[in-house]
Amino acid sequence: MKKYFMALLAMCFVLPLVAQKPISPDYRRWDFDSDLAGWRFDNQDQNPALQCTVKQGVVKIWTRKASVDRKKITTVDSNYTSGRYTWRTYISQFGPGDQSSIGSWIYSDDHHEIDFEVGYGKREVRTKLGAAADDLVAYMTTQDFPFASIPVLIKSGWHVFEIDLSLVGGCYFVQWIIDGQLRASVQQTFGSEVGFRVLCSVENLRFIGDIPATQDNYGFFDYVEYTFHR
User: Fold this and answer.
1) Distance, C-alpha 183 to centroid of its chain
2) Does the predicted model carry a pTM greater than 0.85?
3) 3-state SS string for 64-113
4) Averaged pLDDT of the chain
5) What element of type H or E holds 171?
6) Which of 37, 115, 158, 184 could form a Cys-Cys staple with 141, CB 3.0–4.6 A?
7) CA angle 32, 114, 137 (to 5 degrees)
8) Interatomic CA distance for residues 174 and 187, integer angstroms
9) What is the pLDDT, as a whole number, of residue 20?
Protein backbone atom coordinates (compact mmCIF):
# COMPACT_ATOMS: atom_id res chain seq x y z
CA MET A 1 0.00 0.00 0.00
CA LYS A 2 2.85 2.38 0.86
CA LYS A 3 4.56 1.70 -2.51
CA TYR A 4 1.27 2.34 -4.34
CA PHE A 5 0.76 5.62 -2.50
CA MET A 6 4.29 6.81 -3.28
CA ALA A 7 3.92 5.92 -6.96
CA LEU A 8 0.62 7.81 -7.16
CA LEU A 9 2.17 10.82 -5.45
CA ALA A 10 5.06 10.81 -7.93
CA MET A 11 2.60 10.81 -10.83
CA CYS A 12 0.99 13.95 -9.44
CA PHE A 13 4.30 15.76 -9.75
CA VAL A 14 5.21 14.59 -13.26
CA LEU A 15 1.82 14.88 -14.97
CA PRO A 16 1.49 18.21 -16.79
CA LEU A 17 -0.89 20.73 -15.32
CA VAL A 18 -4.04 21.29 -17.36
CA ALA A 19 -4.64 24.99 -17.98
CA GLN A 20 -8.12 26.08 -17.05
CA LYS A 21 -10.14 28.23 -19.41
CA PRO A 22 -10.70 31.77 -18.17
CA ILE A 23 -14.20 32.42 -16.85
CA SER A 24 -15.38 35.69 -18.32
CA PRO A 25 -17.78 38.02 -16.50
CA ASP A 26 -21.15 38.68 -18.13
CA TYR A 27 -20.76 42.46 -18.19
CA ARG A 28 -18.39 45.21 -17.13
CA ARG A 29 -18.51 48.97 -17.66
CA TRP A 30 -16.02 51.57 -16.52
CA ASP A 31 -17.20 55.19 -16.58
CA PHE A 32 -14.08 56.58 -14.87
CA ASP A 33 -16.27 58.73 -12.63
CA SER A 34 -13.40 59.73 -10.35
CA ASP A 35 -10.63 57.15 -10.47
CA LEU A 36 -9.16 54.11 -12.22
CA ALA A 37 -10.82 51.46 -10.04
CA GLY A 38 -10.30 48.06 -11.67
CA TRP A 39 -7.40 49.35 -13.77
CA ARG A 40 -3.65 49.76 -13.31
CA PHE A 41 -0.82 51.52 -15.11
CA ASP A 42 1.08 49.45 -17.67
CA ASN A 43 3.53 51.96 -19.11
CA GLN A 44 6.23 50.50 -21.34
CA ASP A 45 9.01 53.09 -21.31
CA GLN A 46 11.79 54.50 -19.12
CA ASN A 47 9.91 57.72 -18.32
CA PRO A 48 8.57 57.52 -14.74
CA ALA A 49 5.84 60.14 -15.29
CA LEU A 50 2.42 58.51 -15.55
CA GLN A 51 1.00 61.14 -17.94
CA CYS A 52 -2.57 60.08 -17.18
CA THR A 53 -5.34 62.00 -15.43
CA VAL A 54 -9.00 61.36 -14.61
CA LYS A 55 -11.26 64.39 -14.63
CA GLN A 56 -15.07 64.64 -14.86
CA GLY A 57 -15.38 61.00 -15.93
CA VAL A 58 -12.80 61.16 -18.71
CA VAL A 59 -9.32 59.64 -18.77
CA LYS A 60 -6.63 61.65 -20.55
CA ILE A 61 -3.38 59.96 -21.60
CA TRP A 62 -0.61 61.81 -23.42
CA THR A 63 2.91 61.53 -24.79
CA ARG A 64 5.64 64.13 -25.13
CA LYS A 65 6.95 65.31 -28.46
CA ALA A 66 10.22 63.81 -29.76
CA SER A 67 10.03 61.07 -27.08
CA VAL A 68 9.55 57.31 -27.01
CA ASP A 69 6.75 57.53 -24.42
CA ARG A 70 4.45 54.49 -24.27
CA LYS A 71 1.66 55.22 -21.77
CA LYS A 72 -1.03 52.64 -21.05
CA ILE A 73 -3.70 51.64 -18.58
CA THR A 74 -5.02 48.08 -18.40
CA THR A 75 -7.71 46.19 -16.56
CA VAL A 76 -6.51 44.30 -13.52
CA ASP A 77 -8.53 41.27 -14.65
CA SER A 78 -7.36 39.26 -17.66
CA ASN A 79 -10.26 36.83 -18.07
CA TYR A 80 -12.27 38.55 -20.83
CA THR A 81 -13.05 36.24 -23.75
CA SER A 82 -15.78 36.19 -26.41
CA GLY A 83 -18.03 39.23 -26.43
CA ARG A 84 -18.27 42.87 -27.43
CA TYR A 85 -15.53 45.28 -26.29
CA THR A 86 -16.43 48.97 -26.59
CA TRP A 87 -14.43 52.18 -26.11
CA ARG A 88 -15.62 55.78 -26.54
CA THR A 89 -12.38 57.46 -27.48
CA TYR A 90 -11.41 60.97 -28.54
CA ILE A 91 -8.84 61.03 -31.32
CA SER A 92 -6.81 64.23 -31.28
CA GLN A 93 -5.23 65.77 -34.39
CA PHE A 94 -1.65 64.59 -34.73
CA GLY A 95 1.16 66.56 -36.27
CA PRO A 96 1.83 65.57 -39.91
CA GLY A 97 3.96 62.42 -39.95
CA ASP A 98 3.95 62.00 -36.16
CA GLN A 99 4.95 58.55 -34.93
CA SER A 100 2.20 58.54 -32.31
CA SER A 101 -0.84 56.34 -31.74
CA ILE A 102 -4.05 56.28 -29.70
CA GLY A 103 -4.98 52.69 -28.88
CA SER A 104 -8.19 50.92 -27.87
CA TRP A 105 -7.31 47.23 -27.67
CA ILE A 106 -7.18 43.87 -25.93
CA TYR A 107 -4.09 41.86 -25.02
CA SER A 108 -3.11 38.44 -23.69
CA ASP A 109 0.51 38.24 -24.90
CA ASP A 110 2.55 39.44 -27.86
CA HIS A 111 0.99 36.76 -30.10
CA HIS A 112 -2.60 37.17 -28.88
CA GLU A 113 -3.42 40.87 -29.25
CA ILE A 114 -6.23 42.65 -31.13
CA ASP A 115 -6.11 46.39 -31.67
CA PHE A 116 -7.45 49.67 -32.86
CA GLU A 117 -4.40 51.91 -33.31
CA VAL A 118 -5.07 55.40 -34.68
CA GLY A 119 -2.34 57.74 -35.86
CA TYR A 120 -1.25 59.95 -38.71
CA GLY A 121 -0.15 56.98 -40.79
CA LYS A 122 2.89 56.46 -42.98
CA ARG A 123 3.10 58.37 -46.22
CA GLU A 124 2.67 55.30 -48.44
CA VAL A 125 -0.41 54.18 -46.51
CA ARG A 126 -1.99 57.64 -46.67
CA THR A 127 -1.29 57.84 -50.41
CA LYS A 128 -2.87 54.43 -51.03
CA LEU A 129 -5.98 55.41 -49.04
CA GLY A 130 -6.25 58.84 -50.70
CA ALA A 131 -6.01 60.67 -47.37
CA ALA A 132 -6.86 64.36 -47.13
CA ALA A 133 -4.72 66.68 -45.02
CA ASP A 134 -6.98 66.30 -41.96
CA ASP A 135 -7.45 62.53 -42.29
CA LEU A 136 -5.92 60.09 -39.83
CA VAL A 137 -5.45 56.34 -40.19
CA ALA A 138 -7.06 53.68 -37.99
CA TYR A 139 -5.20 50.37 -38.11
CA MET A 140 -7.20 47.27 -37.18
CA THR A 141 -4.73 44.58 -36.23
CA THR A 142 -4.35 41.03 -34.99
CA GLN A 143 -0.77 40.31 -33.99
CA ASP A 144 -0.76 36.62 -34.94
CA PHE A 145 -2.80 33.49 -35.79
CA PRO A 146 -2.98 34.99 -38.39
CA PHE A 147 -1.37 38.42 -38.50
CA ALA A 148 -3.57 41.07 -40.13
CA SER A 149 -3.44 44.86 -40.29
CA ILE A 150 -6.18 46.75 -42.11
CA PRO A 151 -5.96 50.56 -42.37
CA VAL A 152 -8.95 52.88 -42.90
CA LEU A 153 -9.31 56.65 -42.82
CA ILE A 154 -10.81 58.43 -39.82
CA LYS A 155 -11.23 62.04 -38.67
CA SER A 156 -10.22 63.60 -35.38
CA GLY A 157 -13.01 63.64 -32.77
CA TRP A 158 -15.05 61.31 -30.59
CA HIS A 159 -15.57 57.78 -31.92
CA VAL A 160 -17.00 54.51 -30.63
CA PHE A 161 -14.60 51.63 -31.31
CA GLU A 162 -15.84 48.06 -30.90
CA ILE A 163 -14.08 44.73 -31.14
CA ASP A 164 -16.51 41.83 -31.36
CA LEU A 165 -15.26 38.30 -30.68
CA SER A 166 -17.64 35.48 -31.55
CA LEU A 167 -16.80 31.78 -31.66
CA VAL A 168 -16.79 30.09 -35.07
CA GLY A 169 -15.71 26.48 -34.98
CA GLY A 170 -14.36 27.08 -31.48
CA CYS A 171 -12.10 29.94 -32.62
CA TYR A 172 -12.49 33.68 -32.37
CA PHE A 173 -14.02 35.51 -35.31
CA VAL A 174 -12.94 39.14 -34.97
CA GLN A 175 -15.01 42.09 -36.18
CA TRP A 176 -13.84 45.71 -35.93
CA ILE A 177 -16.67 48.25 -35.77
CA ILE A 178 -16.28 52.04 -35.83
CA ASP A 179 -19.28 54.24 -34.99
CA GLY A 180 -21.64 51.34 -35.62
CA GLN A 181 -20.16 50.44 -39.03
CA LEU A 182 -18.38 47.13 -39.62
CA ARG A 183 -14.95 47.98 -41.08
CA ALA A 184 -13.04 44.67 -41.11
CA SER A 185 -13.13 41.04 -39.95
CA VAL A 186 -10.63 38.20 -39.52
CA GLN A 187 -10.99 34.55 -38.48
CA GLN A 188 -8.48 33.56 -35.81
CA THR A 189 -7.11 30.06 -35.11
CA PHE A 190 -7.47 30.25 -31.32
CA GLY A 191 -10.48 30.65 -29.08
CA SER A 192 -11.70 31.13 -25.54
CA GLU A 193 -8.80 29.23 -24.01
CA VAL A 194 -7.14 32.66 -24.34
CA GLY A 195 -8.42 35.46 -22.11
CA PHE A 196 -7.63 39.14 -22.52
CA ARG A 197 -6.93 42.32 -20.62
CA VAL A 198 -8.53 45.54 -21.90
CA LEU A 199 -6.30 48.54 -22.57
CA CYS A 200 -6.32 52.25 -23.40
CA SER A 201 -3.09 53.85 -24.55
CA VAL A 202 -1.25 56.70 -26.19
CA GLU A 203 2.17 55.65 -27.48
CA ASN A 204 4.86 57.04 -29.72
CA LEU A 205 5.32 54.14 -32.14
CA ARG A 206 7.54 54.11 -35.22
CA PHE A 207 5.25 51.98 -37.39
CA ILE A 208 2.43 54.54 -37.47
CA GLY A 209 4.23 57.61 -38.83
CA ASP A 210 7.33 58.86 -40.61
CA ILE A 211 9.01 61.16 -38.05
CA PRO A 212 9.31 61.47 -34.26
CA ALA A 213 6.30 63.26 -32.80
CA THR A 214 6.48 67.01 -33.44
CA GLN A 215 4.06 67.81 -30.61
CA ASP A 216 2.61 66.41 -27.41
CA ASN A 217 -0.22 64.06 -28.43
CA TYR A 218 -3.16 62.91 -26.35
CA GLY A 219 -6.31 60.82 -26.31
CA PHE A 220 -9.44 60.92 -24.15
CA PHE A 221 -11.35 57.82 -23.00
CA ASP A 222 -14.93 58.43 -21.87
CA TYR A 223 -15.94 54.86 -21.03
CA VAL A 224 -15.03 51.24 -21.70
CA GLU A 225 -17.56 48.41 -21.78
CA TYR A 226 -17.53 44.63 -22.13
CA THR A 227 -20.53 42.37 -22.79
CA PHE A 228 -20.03 38.61 -22.87
CA HIS A 229 -21.57 36.41 -25.52
CA ARG A 230 -20.93 32.88 -26.77
Assistant:
1) 17
2) yes
3) CCCCCCEEEEEECCCCECCEEEEEEEEECCCCCCECCEEEEEEEEECCEE
4) 92
5) strand 171-178
6) 115
7) 85
8) 6
9) 74
CA–CA gap between residue 71 and residue 205 (Å, rounded) = 11
Q: Of the candidates 57, 47, 83, 15, which has an alpha carbon nearest to the alpha carbon of residue 222? A: 57
Residue 113 · residue 147 · CB < 8 Å? no
What is the Cα–Cα distance from 97 to 217, expressed in whole angstroms? 12
Single out the residue of 161, 31, 57, 147 nearest to residue 102, CA to CA. Answer: 161
**Identity of the amino acid at 127:** T
pLDDT at 11 > cutoff 60: no
Residues contacting residue 154 through CB under 8 Å, at least 6 positions apart: 91, 118, 135, 136, 137, 138, 178
Q: What is the helix (H) or strand (E) element at residue 9, kind and residue range? A: helix 2-14
Choose among 95, 101, 131: nearest CA to 117.
101
Residues 6+ apart with CB under 8 A from 41: 50, 52, 72, 73, 74
User: pLDDT at position 15, please?
Assistant: 34
- Residue 228 pairs in a beta bridge with 83
| Closest to 28 in 3D by CA, of 72, 74, 86, 73 | 86
Name beta bridge partners: 118.
102, 138
Find out whether 119 and 137 touch, Cβ atoms under 8 Å.
yes
